[in-house]
Automatic annotation (TrEMBL):
Name under which the protein is recorded: IS110 family transposase
Disordered, as annotated region: 394-418
Annotated ranges, domain Transposase IS116/IS110/IS902 C-terminal: 211-295
Species of provenance: Telluria antibiotica
Native organism taxonomy: Bacteria, Pseudomonadati, Pseudomonadota, Betaproteobacteria, Burkholderiales
Domain Transposase IS110-like N-terminal: residue ranges: 4-145
InterPro entries documented for this protein: Transp_IS110-like_N, Transpos_IS110, Transposase_20
Amino acid sequence: MRVIGLDVSRSFAEVAYLENGLVQAGGRVTLLHPELEHFAQRLGPDDHVVLEATGNTAAIVAALKSHAGRVVVANPLKVRLIAEARIKTDKIDAAILAQLYASGFLPEVWTPDDATLALRRQVARRTQIVRQRTRLKNEIHAVLAAHLIAPCPASDLFGKKGRSWLADQPLPLDERIGVEQRLRTLDLLAHDAKQIEEMLARSALAQPQVARLMTITGINVMIALSLVAAIGDISRFSSPEKLVSYLGLNPSVYQSGLQPAKHGRISKRGRSHARGMLVEGAWAVAQTPGPLRAFFLRIKDRRGEQIAAVACARKLAVIAWHVLTRDENFVWERPALVAHKRRQLELQAGMPAKRGGHKGLGADYNLKAIRDQERAVAEQAEKVYQKLFSRWRQAKPKDAQPCFWPPKRNQDKVRGAP
């Protein structure tokens, strides 16, 4: 077996060959399709290629995997922790990647399939459009505040009534031109967002995992798609704790010597977009009756609402793992609400509307009696959770003894006493 290390930059990759324990420099490969294809044709089934995860990794892997025996993507953060060096060059980095792989110490990264990669790109584009629209709206609000103009009486400043009100406000000519330019950009971004959301809706209807995740309280179609794009194959996570760690929602831990372990803030390592979407779902859970809201309120009373939101996001990740692994709906799902969300997804995907007769369970959610019935069941579940926790918190174990660390028999020796 020959191991080939690639230190990838934006325009080229430095190559290092490791064979029979000897490392040799292989020069540079320009990261363009013709040059990369010429390099790939020189590879064989006994060649294993190693490179770090970067922005152009997916294209490089796609070009090399059909020629090489195996293409491995390394976690750049963990590689730096293992092989940090004072003398750092592209040649040294390529050689280190090859040596770590040959010795079995290379921290690998899962390579998603083409469908998952496409879904990740679509979700990322939608997120970028949402951020641009938010920035433009904030700039318009800032213009109004700078000229001491009262808030818009309409509920939506950027709706039909809000724009009519905005056109009548006394703004300087340059500010007026700037606001109109921002509004035109907003309309263009809204059109782009509608196209991407229609594509995402069609993709969601074709994936049963999205339907399962949408049964969880607080998770809508965009949160579900973000999780599916980040997770990929759920079987690669052997436990919910593995998924929580992958999303960066696990607490950081520090322990040295005889000192007890100290737990800090969450690690924030892994898929940041999926983690942010779960936190967004946690805030929705805080407003929705059910056991999850009882959990949020319990943490909020002790640690504050910010920590409660993160803890609830972690809880959502654990529930998502169980739902996807068991291929079952969330036990506290609200059937009419879930059907309503799915029907909205179908309409967003361009499916025709149903007219006349019974429109299905999704339309039943518009009936107040059905909404109140489902809400009453959720509120009852929330009360049961609160009652159960209050009993558990008041109960004390029999013959409870104080816990010492280090153990009492060793305290004198630890403190240095004779």
